[in-house]
Structures are given as C-alpha cells and as structure tokens.
C-alpha cells in the first residue's frame, strides 16, 4: 500500500453518489416511520415486524456495500491516507456522539456498536483487501457472512461480545451491526467495485452524466450522506416528539392494541373469531366506563379494580354465551 498522499483519485462516479443518495433517503424514511411507531402514531412495530426488519436490513446492506465500493474508488490505486483518516475521524466522532446521545435517551437500549461504529471499523479492515489478490476478499466474505449460520454461543448474548455477532439471542440495542455477517457485505462492495473497474463497464459508468433535478438532488444527498445521517434523527425527533406530546396518539392507539391483543388471546383459546370480536369490544367498553387503562398498562391492579375487571369479563362472556349467568 502506497503512502504517497499525492496519489491521483479516480474520477467520481455519479451513479455511486446517486445510489448513496437513494440509500440515505431510504434511511431517513425508515427512521421517520420508526419514530412514528415509537410515539404510537402508527400501529406497525417498525423495530420488530418482519416486513420492517427486511427493509432495515436492505438499507443497511446498501450502505455497507457502498462503503466497500467507495474504498476501492478512493484508494484502489494506493491509500490516500490524509483523506482516509480525515473522513474516518469524522465517522468515529459521529459514532461516539450517537453512543452518548442514545445513552441519555435510551439507557437500556443505547447504541454501542451501530452503523457508524461498524463503518469506522469496516473501513479500516477493508483497506487490507482493496489491493489484495481478488480471491482473498471473496473467501473472507463467504466465511464472514456464512459463519453465523453455523456457530452461535450464549457468550455473545452479552453486550461486551455481541459486536462480534455470534449471539443466540440478540441483546437489547436500538442499532447493532456486528462484524459477522455485516463486514462481509462491505467486502462484497470491494469485490464488485474491483470487478467493475477491470471491465468495460467502468468506462460506461464513469461517462454517466447527471441530468435532471432528481438525479442531481440524489447525487448531492449522496455526497453529504454522512452529515445527513448524523443530523436527520435529532431533527425528526424534534418534530415528532412535540407533536406526540400535543396530540397524544398513544391514547387513540391503545384501543387498537387492546382489541388486537384480546382477539389473539381469545381465538387462541378456541373461541370463534366473530364471538371473540364481540367479547373484546364488550371488554373495551368496560375498561372505558370504569377508567381502568392505567391499571392495565401499569400492571398494578388494586383489589377494587380487579373486581371491576372480573365483573366485566363475566358480563362479556354472558354476551357471547347467553346461557352463562353474569352474576355467577
């Protein structure tokens, strides 16, 4: 690896900037939906619903893949150390800010090894493969991506070791991007960029010009994706939090949550879906009439509140099964 800081850089590929711009727009949109879910503006559980998990991992894969592509384009002819460390320090500082910010906002699930932490580490590790024989990053990528499917250990359930990625149960964290398998995705970006540069496709991609407002906007966002990543979530929170405090969407959402949970529990007991719907709506009316929401959500039910709940359950059971006496 060359130490010469005067190594010329390849012309900037507009398509890479556009791809990065699309990725950062998708990331902002995803986090906006996460915020709406967290503050109960929408019913979807963005953090855990399988559909949203696939979206989140797809966006993450795009970012890490482009990290590998960018390393090859920026340092494939030789490592430009000054530019590399300048950008790396910015990424590492951003990762530290995210850790500190989430430590205060979400002390139980704070981000200790998230996207920026991973990018900082993966950027250093991937430099070893930018000019290595091509077979080497291919082999390492296969191992890094594949190994978590065959090996796991409870030791990695702990925060101290979870960043390696071999957990059986993922520890609580709002963002966790372990080395295995995600470093393999960055290596895939390295491999893809090197293959493209060896082919005639590189000349055609380099000749792509930005035409139209949308491509130019996406390319602009792509060039500033790191700064956008650092700033977008605080800005979104500053917008969504006061709206939630004023509109209190969790109050409206709690009825839907109760009905959904009640319906699932009722059907699991073998009761017909139609009867369960009637029963649950009856139960909701009882909760509203007796003002029992606080007791239900806190789990601290006083004796008189429990008596009201029991009476409501008997009454609602009698609605779907008239032969039952609600006084029994």
Can you offer a commentary on this structure?
- The protein has 328 residues and is mainly α.
- It folds into 2 domains: 234 residues, no CATH class; 72 residues.
- Helix content is 69%, strand content 0%.
- The chain is elongated and about 80 Å long.
Please report the number of helical segments.
14
- The outline comes out as elongated
> Which regions contain 5 or more consecutive residues with pLDDT less than 50?
none
Helix content: 55-70%
**Radius of gyration, taken over Cα atoms and rounded to an integer in Å:** 26 Å
Mean pLDDT across residues = 89
Largest sheet: none
Quickly count the domains: 2
The protein's oligomeric status is single chain
Termini, distance in Å?
Answer: 84 Å
Percent of residues in beta strands?
Answer: under 5%
Features:
mainly alpha; 2 domains; 328 residues; 69% helix
Summary of the model, kept short:
The protein has 328 residues and is mainly α. The protein is 69% helix and 0% strand.
Write the layout of secondary structure elements.
Elements: H1 14-38, H2 50-75, H3 81-105, H4 115-126, H5 135-146, H6 159-162, H7 179-198, H8 201-206, H9 213-223, H10 225-247, H11 249-268, H12 273-290, H13 293-298, H14 303-320
